[in-house]
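Predict the 3D structure for this chain.
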Amino acid sequence: MNDEKKNRLKNRWSVFRENHSIGFVLLAVIVFNIIFIGLSALLISFLPENDDRSVFELIKLAFTLMVNPSGRYVYSDATLSLYLTTIVVLLGMISLTGGTVGLITSFIQNILQRSANSESVLKMKDHIVVLNYNNKVPSMIVDYCFDDMDSTYVVILSNSDKRQVLDDIGNMYKSKGSTKKFKNIIVRNGDPMSEIDLDKINIKDAQTVLVMTPKELTEDSKIHDKDFYLSKLFMFINWYLQTAKKKNSQEVPNLVVETSNGNMEQLVETYNIDEECTDSVFVNYNQIMGYLIAITSVMPSLYGVLQQLFSFEGVELYISEPEEGKDVEYDLMYNQSVIPLYDMDDKRIYVAEDEDEIGRRTKDIDSVKKIIEQYQNPEKIIVPNCTFEKQEIIIVGINEKLPYILDNLIGFKQKYENEGLHVILASTADEEDTLKSYYEDEHYAPILMPDKFSYIRVNDIFNPMPELGEATKEKAETIVFLSEDNVADECTDAKPLIYWTDLRAAFRQNDKVDVMVEILDSANKNIIQAKNKDQTLVSDDFLGHLYAQLGKNPQRLAVLIDMITAVGDDDEDADPNAEAEPDAGDFLCLKVGTLLGAKEKMEFKSKRELIMSIYWMTGGLVLPLGLIKQFGDDEQALAYIFARTNGGKDGLDNANLLNMTDDDNKNDSEVIEVYPEDELVFFLKTPEE
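Done. Predicted structure below.
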């Protein structure tokens, strides 16, 4: 048995012992008695009167003798018989007497108590450890239902009540309607700052350690207390793992730290922790969600695509070593079931539904060669037109994501020369000073245009119509309602939902406006879905999916940030002589008519032909990944190039696009029909200098 299978068995046994302690004790009692009966049968097999008896008969005689020594067993006059049968009777007395039952009962109570108090030591390896607990953890756990569950094991250590954590996870299964449940999970109540508690979960042998922002420290904690706590916890965990590394000369796990700003990276740099540090990845969740909200405000359909791409349900991004000497275009031509995107250092980024599909080649590339020959003429190359249709964006509310939203929109505006793209900020009167500060800051002038447009001050949040109503109807093409930071749990998402409720009638008069409501708690998503089809951006859900991915491979964070970011490197302290990191490209979604100038429908015999045709007709700049087909005035269904539907796999050469919605919308024709109004999901490569 190889090491991987041994570790898997150890992990499974640890989960069973922790979560099913009564079953574990019952199994131990049964095994204990079986051993005694087997030993007794072995002893009486040495007696001459039992030479011709079968194993079954010996077991039956041994059990009878243990239970009732004066019963039907016929004793021999031999001295050996006296000794051996006496030992068997004693074994029966030890196994079945009241004293032994009492001892076992005490043993059971001790195990149950140790399990309840999280005192037992876990013999696990290559597991994922989550330190602290917040609302993103349940989404992360549910996402692992769609991964290889036999090789994934999660241990949560936090000060939160164990029963409450398990109830939250159970409610998340229910809200998502998941028929699967991830059972390889252990929830421990303890202190992440305690060496004893860390030793008990065997953190030094983990695959990845995720340090989460605590849900709450104390009822009167200040906002920055969490940053102080995380900084202290990070330094402690780093010290703990480095000490273990020096003692045992072993590799330490990856460390993923959730932060709300860039202070943690600055801390590491200031104190030179990185010289001894583990491979640490810092997840600034406000930055990631800010960048995500920015691009989805310009391309609303992209949010659903990214949510699926960074979840184990469907297709994922994988990082793998490419075949030596084979570039991305070779991989694209010969790979049967995955799409290679670009190279990052010595690795290659792939889109696939299964990592095992990477490297499986097809020999049938005659159709690909014909496509290449057709578009080898430079005069046939189409220059992609990346002009975003959304120009007028109103952002209602202020939170810590807003600076990142504006930064990314500035980057997109400059990168794709969308001169008309601008934002109008709106918020309540108590935040007017903050609104002014954004409009007075020259950094945000390219997107806010303070000389042409002003911010909107809402005097009464329960009656925003006088200020926001007319602006929404006349100017907005996209309106985004932002969540409010740092409010009590019972008030989470209240502010954007109040805005949205009162303004719903106003912006519904403009059928071209896209409405997006950012919420933190996924439980509040139903409030919006019950009313209409406005898009909800659930921060906890998306980040939960992301953390599930990072638990497997922290390098995927760099891929995500690269794909959703158009912000340039404006670090004043950066070395001017240093070679800049190349921008691989962006993940975009545009109408086919806008992107390719198509005025009539295009037909493709297979997905391979669709991918390769558009790739070569744009000179290798546009790499199609999916298609959003229009199925009516009020509904649209997302159809991926790759999709997992009811457990089945969709090969690259399969002509049918598999939708993420009802089967009634499926395109069952033998060819893929692409209309100018359909939206193409694609990776736009940055042209080489």
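Confidence is low (pLDDT under 50) at residues 569-580, 644-649, 659-668.
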